[in-house]
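re the bet — no i am not wrong, look at it urself. input seq straight from the record:
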Amino acid sequence: MVAYQDFVALSQSRDSEERGQAAHLAAIAYLNHVGPADEHAALYAALIGFLDDPSVRVRGALAYGLLHAIEAPRPILLALLQDSAVIARAVVQYSPALIDADLMALIGQADQGMLLATAMRERLSSRVVEALIARGGEPLTTKLLGRPDVPFSPDLLRRLAEVEGRDSAEIRGLLLEREDLPADARLVLVQAVASALLGTRMVVGAVAPQRLARLLRNATDTALTSIGEREAAAGREPYAARLVDTELVSTRVMLHALVQGHVLFFSNCIANLADTPQGKVFSLLENGSRAALNAMFAQCGLSEPVRNMLARLIFHARAADLADDLSARHFVVTALTEELIVEHDGAIPPELEEAFAYLNEQNVILARRAARGVMAGFAGAARTEMPLPRVEFEDRLALPAA
């Protein structure tokens, strides 16, 4: 307990440390007051008086006493927000009594230090986050994106992916780590990663240009259909609809979805292209006859050769687990390729040339992946020795050192 006379003596002391003790005591007493109303009013008046103290130490002690209290008087907090930088930053970072309107008014005129302090608050609304992103640069954006508890609106995440995400690898990585990133924005970032790899000297120098282009296109297609499969499994359909509206669903994409076992995404695309209910599409894919499948693909506007090819692939896919079995994928792609060659007597129609080139690419990719580790696994399991032919080397002239 501190007597009133002692408190007055401290608050009028010439020593700034003693006045700081008085300011801190007044703040704590005000927040915990349970006595008469006139006493509470006197404490409030004392707090206001400390705002005019010439010492930053005193005003800092006052702020420290009120800093974490939701009941802190707002007029005093707003005055402290106009105080020296060290005090204002502490108040904006820690005070729960400030509301969005206070923060929005502050953000419009704040310097980079105040913006960073605001970004470190325990709770931020999506409105405040958007205002901070609009004012701040990349350091502020990365700090906010790195906090999974901070809410971002889907539109803001899309804008960040379209603009900052294309140029900054750090922002791309932070965006891709966020669970709330919209699917179409995730695809934009995947495409940006592919473009960045194409411009990286180390990558370009290590892989032949044509092979690198094939690898990146295959990886981008896989990302596109994988994102679609996840969105479809979660019951979120606009991703496929957006791709259809922007004409990104090609025959190659549909083939890739089936080959990768991403049937939910494929059915979403067909439902949007044919304007047919999702349930009906999925039922036809599971049990529909060839004629029924052809009729559905005709509603999508696909040519007859493409319709027949997709129907063949679906019949193969029904008997295989393409989502998890790499060997099954290789078998299905090989079988479909051979059937197309036989059906068209080796003269592949122009409508199927792109699809046939894709199947050839997949055949090589899947063969390589399926072959990895086969010999090592066989050698580990086999008990017998493998006879190797003896190689005879001819005597060669030894050339003198140059």
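see?? The first helix runs from residue 4 to 11. told u. also The chain has a mean pLDDT of 88. so pay up
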